[in-house]
Design a protein that fits this description.
By secondary structure, this protein is an alpha+beta fold. It contains seven helices and five strands, in the order ααααββαββαβα. The longest helix is centred in the middle third of the chain and has 25 residues.
């Protein structure tokens, strides 16, 4: 988790996204999670105890804590929008049609129950090098790992990484041309790459 205290927010989150999760909503999610974890094994109960003590003056900084993750999301969205708006102010027409959202589904997948799982740090470095090599001006991106079921069979379930991103400074066609070779169509992903114009910065971020 990033230490958001080291940075100032350029833009208020509720100005750019009025529908952003409230602190009360995050607290309710945290309380539900604590109750569920308390019914688990020793490790789960230890997580529950840590989450339950997360307070304003002493945050737990856990990546599964709805309160801490909300703070991180708020900071990230506000900072990213502030950065993009700074660029727009210096060249108002330069970013016209050049703020692009993308979703990429890599070829790699991992069998459920296998000890082989995606190494997110290595995947992150690979993606960074790829964007740098293709000379992308500015990218905000993250990786989500979801469990995909096929015919409701857990024996066929697969962990599948997904890349979500926002590209600033290139057109839709330029982004698609640069990335299409990395995300070829295949049986379980007929359209593994989605590239569209971004119409809502806050929601995409």
């Amino acid at each position: 988790m990033a230490n958001t205290d080291e940075f100032s927010q350029k833009v208020s989150i509720h100005q750019v996204w009025p529908k952003f999760e409230t602190i009360d909503q995050a607290l309710k999610r945290r309380d539900t999670l604590v109750r569920q974890l308390r019914n688990g094994d020793i490790s789960a109960q230890q997580f529950a105890a840590n989450l339950a003590t997360c307070k304003d003056h002493r945050r737990c900084d856990s990546p599964i804590c709805p309160i801490c993750v909300r703070e991180l999301r708020s900071w990230f969205i506000s900072e990213a929008i502030g950065c993009i708006e700074d660029l727009r102010s210096t060249n108002p027409s330069g970013l016209s049609d050049r703020v692009i959202r993308l979703l990429g589904i890599p070829c790699e997948e991992y069998r459920f129950g296998s000890r082989s799982l995606p190494n997110l740090q290595r995947l992150n470095k690979t993606l960074q090098k790829r964007f740098q090599r293709d000379e992308f001006p500015l990218v905000f991106a993250g990786v989500d790992v979801s469990l995909n079921l096929f015919n409701n069979s857990i024996t066929r379930a697969r962990w599948q990484p997904h890349l979500y991103g926002l590209v600033v400074g290139l057109t839709r066609d330029e982004v698609k041309a640069a990335l299409s070779a990395y995300y070829p169509p295949r049986k379980r992903a007929r359209k593994p790459l989605y590239v569209t114009r971004c119409n809502s910065l806050a929601a995409v971020l």
